[in-house]
Amino acid sequence: MHRKSPTGIFRRPACLALLVAMAGLILSSCASNPTGGSDFVLMSEEDELQLGARLHPQIIRQFGIYQDQRLQNYVNDIGQKLAAVSHRPNIRYRFTVLDDDQVNAFATPGGYIYITRGIMAYLDSEAELAAIVGHEIAHVTARHAVRQHGKSSILKTLSAVAGMLTPLQSGSVLTSYVGGALLSGFGRKAELQADGLGAEYMAKAGYDPESIIDVLRVMKQKELFEVERARQEGREAQVYHGVFATHPDNDTRLKEVVGAADKLQVRPDALVNAEAYLSRINGLVFGESRGNRVIRAHKFYDLGLGIKVTFPEGWAISNRNDEVIATSPDGNAALFFSALPIPKRVVPKTILRQQMGARNIRDSSNITIDGLPSFLAIADYSESAYGKRPVRYAFIADPKRRVGFIFAGAGRNDRRKIAADPEFIKAIFSFDRMNDADFRAARLPVISLHRADGKSSFASLAENSVIGSHAEDQLRLLNRAYPDGEPVAGKIIKEVR
């Protein structure tokens, strides 16, 4: 139930001679690749550095910086060590851990490398972290993002000249890069090249390149779990861009490019540093919680606003861009929750129409929820996560603080009746202002390490976990025991508490 933002499209007259001339200029643009060979690119290194600098603040606004300077310094130290032995050691590299739970890492032009806290939870050693970071450095040294920019620029420029699209659109740079290849990858050939170059950088910096295989093995397991979960929830799977259809254990080409690093005479004492790495992620925030917005099991707390909502047990909760979306286990129902500023005098129907696009409002009633004036209604034809259909709305106003809260729930198969309406109503009426006990309970879920005693199973650990849905599978993935392994006595295991 995302609100639509209007976008403007301006048309310009086309000139065939100009179109042909520009196409000729574009098709003659070719630059040398620092790793060898040539690139089909449209920008100089100076332009590349400027583009990365332009993208950086936009990326930080979208994802946020993970607030742990010790961890940031640790990742930067490893990154700088790898960058120093890369094919482009003279540009300035910047390494940032993002406050995002997605399992991913990416690089933008000009040496900006980003790694999410989400992917760090699934790594087991410093060498594995070096494998991820080295892979992203390789995308920079091989200029993969620049080449992607070249291809997309051809289409954008020709379209602009042909009068189909304005060459400058708000947010187009960030959408083009972060929403495209940087998060989803550059294709099989480029990813294999990044693996090979990353392995080379690891060997030169003293790390064991075989850790790349270990990383891709756990990423493949995470992908299998995520694809199945996404299928059940009726959404698109979010997977690490470096993983392809073939399992890494059976990927002959991958083993060849990683094995090529053996020519560099990998040291017999090549660094792995498992315990050093694990000590750094002990206390790492896990899951959808971030900042003042905490999710523990099926409860959502907003510490800044001092409110809480209890969603149906077993529903997956997504915390994105000031919105919370709870999705049923089968993916056939979703409940949206958000806060917004309101004027001193507010008309709920107007808010729903203007902010949510609600139409044909029926079954409306003015009620009180947690002592606050509220409004319940159904809109027969409104935008939802499943397209236009009946939507259950609730609006709760807090006039003193000039803030309002909106719930919007819908089902995939709803036509007139809303199948999950009882669950929606229960969650809506769970809205409550937090007390002292709630503030004490609303701790950020974090990775906690201990040695297995040989008595606990992942099922028993899941019973006390704050992960919420799929807790047992999540714990197995974190501990390299997916799909059916159990804790090994004496081995360090990760829990989420």
Topology of this structure?
Elements: H1 16-27, E1 31-32, E2 38-39, H2 45-63, H3 69-83, E3 94-98, E4 105-108, E5 112-116, H4 117-120, H5 126-141, H6 144-161, H7 172-184, H8 188-205, H9 211-233, H10 252-259, H11 274-281, E6 293-296, E7 299-302, E8 307-310, E9 316-320, E10 323-327, E11 333-341, H12 348-356, E12 361-369, E13 372-382, E14 389-398, E15 403-411, H13 421-429, E16 432-433, H14 436-441, E17 447-451, H15 458-463, H16 471-478, E18 492-496
Parallel strand pairs: 3-5
Antiparallel strand pairs: 1-2, 4-5, 6-7, 7-8, 8-16, 9-10, 10-11, 11-15, 12-13, 13-14, 14-15, 17-18
Helix pairs in contact: 1-6, 3-5, 5-8, 5-9, 6-7, 8-10
Helical content band: 25-40%
Number of separate domains: 3
Average pLDDT, rounded to a whole number, is 83
Largest sheet: 7 strands, antiparallel
Number of helices: 16
Radius of gyration: 25 Å
Q: Based on Cα principal axes, name the global outline.
A: globular
Number of strands: 18
Q: What are the segments in which pLDDT stays under 50 over at least 5 consecutive residues?
A: 1-29, 153-181
Q: How much strand? A: 15-25%
Strand order across the biggest sheet?
9-10-11-15-14-13-12
Terminal CA distance:
31 Å
What structural category arises from helix and sheet content? alpha+beta
